[in-house]
Amino acid sequence: MARALPVIASEAKQSPGTISAAEIASACFACLAMTALIFSSSLPARAADGDVDQGRDTYGELCATCHGRDMVNPGALSFDLRKFPKDDFERFKGSVLDGKGRAMPAWRDKLSDEDVAGLWAYVRSGG
After folding, report:
1. Is 64 left (phi over 0), alpha (psi -120 to 50) or beta?
2. pTM of this prediction?
3. How confident is the model at residue 43 (pLDDT cuts 50, 70, 90)?
4. Long-range contacts, stretch 80-88, CB < 8 angstroms, 24+ apart
């Protein structure tokens, strides 16, 4: 009876058309890296996925006077935040922190990054 000998990986011969475990692992790693890269392009919005309830509270304290309760503005003087592009966190953040001239005060010294993230989550929720 013939005895099977252990095969050393470097000595193992593959059939044509087969893929080694190392090649599979390398391909999986490459797929994961590409997936991370693709999703990282949307990080500003994703990173800003704050707490909607916290955002609603902050909105009620600082924004509702001009932008209206539940983002339904009382007149035509302020921007209707329900129409704000849901994929433009950087524009939103800039407007909130730096203000809009005389039309809107800057909140940079009053809001934390967490507060801005919460406001963004609330605005994205549509009120």
Report:
1. alpha
2. 0.60
3. very low
4. 81/123, 81/127, 82/126, 82/127, 84/123, 86/124, 87/45
Span of 14-18, 34-38, 65-69 with lowest mean pLDDT:
34-38
Q: What is the model's pLDDT at position 115?
A: 96
Helix (H, G, I), strand (E, B) or coil at 11: helix
Task: Read off the tokens for 16.
Answer: 């044509």
**Identity of the highest mean pLDDT range in 6-20, 37-51, 60-74, 110-124:** 110-124
Q: How far is CA 104 from the centre of its chain?
A: 26
Residues near 108 by beta carbon (within 8 Å), at least 6 away in sequence: 97, 98
Q: Which domains does the chain have, with CATH numbers?
A: 49-125 (1.10.760.10)
Q: Which residue has the tokens 């252990």?
A: 6
